[in-house]
Design brief:
Layout: E1 4-6, H1 9-14, E2 27-34, H2 38-49, E3 54-57, E4 73-75, H3 82-89, H4 91-115, E5 120-128, H5 135-147, E6 152-156, H6 157-164, E7 170-180, H7 182-194, E8 199-201, E9 206-211, E10 216-220, E11 225-233, E12 249-258, E13 273-276, E14 283-286, E15 292-300, H8 304-308, H9 311-325, E16 333-343, E17 350-352, E18 360-364, H10 370-385
Parallel strand pairs: 2-3, 2-11, 3-8, 5-13, 11-18
Antiparallel strand pairs: 1-16, 4-7, 5-7, 6-7, 9-10, 10-11, 12-15, 12-16, 13-14, 14-15, 17-18
Helix pairs in contact: 2-7, 2-10, 3-4, 4-10
């Protein structure tokens, strides 16, 4: 599946920092991870930290799927608001899902420090009402989050103008968020794990997979095999080719990034992450080299051709969205791109086992929280492979739908 187009900034900025071999031999291992993007990288890193022999395979060059198209906002807020999620999965599971996302940001920060990933910054997150009609919903959301123990602050219109310099009827300010560069993070994870024995093979297309009672055998299109005791599917939206029930709706999201500017480092209040209640929602962040990233204007996914022809139009609309909020901040777009993402009925990922596919696990971080979901998946799946019980696994299981 063609997962992105245009010129993703992170790929242009970082290029191809490392070379990985193509699999050209038969190989055996304890665990094989299919997918070398941020999800697979986090899973493989966690496994190698626990001294579990592991290899990673990917049909593409490392990171050139959805990973390089990610705008890399890290939020504990899930696409499904807590005030609504509680009625879909139950209050305790909903709150726990939000708590796990919050904890995953802390974990990702520690991992970034350990592997020398410098492009990682903790940020506040502003969730503002796009329209007056959204204020009552936002107030409900604020109350549910506050009662659940999350550190949130309610901002009225005058507070938003004073603190952030744009006009909105109300907002929730959360203290716990972060931003990174998923593409560079992926490579850093692989390079660090390789030193502990991880093997990463890209440009290795898996043609067939056989799930046996004691092992999984993958065959490449060039006739080589990977035999493993366990397998982890971390290939994101392409997993629809392996799952026989509909679990995800595919959409296209668009992004544009400004030129580097020589203005002050702070463009708005602490350069917080900003997003709104619109559907689809608008989201924005800055970078550590003083650029502005704007994303949104999502469309249902039909085909790469239909998605790609909208890139320039959507980028202009996103630029207009930003200028309406911040008419005094210049925005000169430099790169525009789009990517494919998926959403589930309840906004939660699918993590764990799937009936009929023995010795396999799935790390499917669908939605706007793909990176934080992937970290949660890495911890849960590592526990399961090591034979440990994980009390949170049921929240994200396939059995919930």
């Amino acid at each position: 599946m063609n997962l992105k187009s245009g010129f993703p900034f992170w790929l242009i900025k970082n290029g191809l920092p490392f070379n990985y071999p193509k699999l050209e031999k038969n190989i055996k291992t304890d665990v094989v991870v299919m997918g070398a993007g941020i999800s697979g990288a986090l899973v493989a890193w966690q496994l190698t930290q626990n001294n579990i022999p592991c290899i990673v395979v990917d049909a593409r060059t490392v990171g050139l799927g959805s990973t390089c198209a990610s705008t890399s906002l890290l939020q504990y807020e899930i696409d499904e608001p807590l005030s609504k999620l509680q009625f879909k999965v139950g209050y305790s599971n909903a709150v726990r899902a939000y708590q796990l996302c919050k904890e995953s940001i802390d974990s990702l920060k520690l991992i970034a420090e350990k592997i020398g990933m410098n492009d990682f910054q903790l940020k506040s997150s502003l969730y503002y009402a796009a329209y007056n009609k959204d204020v009552s919903f936002l107030k409900d959301e604020f109350n549910v989050r506050k009662n659940a123990g999350f550190k949130v602050q309610w901002l009225e219109q005058n507070n938003i103008i004073e603190k952030f310099g744009f006009n909105a009827p109300a907002a929730i300010l959360s203290k716990h968020g972060a931003q990174t560069n998923a593409y560079a993070f992926t490579h850093c994870l692989h390079q660090h794990a390789i030193k502990k024995g991880l093997q990463v093979y890209d440009r290795t297309n898996i043609e067939s997979i056989h799930h046996g009672k004691k092992q999984v055998i993958l065959k490449t299109d060039e006739g080589f095999s990977v035999t493993a005791k366990k397998m982890v599917y971390a290939n994101g939206y392409e997993v629809v080719n392996y799952i026989n029930k509909k679990i995800v709706k595919l959409s296209s999201t668009y992004a544009t990034i400004s030129e580097h500017t020589n203005t002050a480092d702070v463009l708005w209040n602490k350069n917080a992450l900003i997003w709104n209640t619109a559907d689809p929602y608008l989201y924005m962040r800055t970078t550590n080299d003083n650029r502005i990233v704007i994303g949104g204007r999502d469309e249902d996914y039909y085909s790469p051709a239909k998605r790609d022809k909208l890139v320039d139009k959507k980028a202009k609309q996103l630029q207009g969205d930003f200028q309406k909020l911040f008419p005094g901040i210049p925005f000169s777009p430099e790169f525009n791109w789009c990517g494919t993402f998926g959403s589930t009925e309840d906004g939660l990922p699918f993590i764990g086992t799937y009936a009929g596919m023995p010795n396999s696990f799935f790390a499917l971080g669908f939605g706007g929280n793909g990176i934080t979901f992937s970290q949660i998946a890495a911890e849960i799946i590592t526990d399961l492979i090591m034979g440990k019980k994980n009390k949170d696994a049921a929240i994200f299981s396939f059995d919930r739908i």
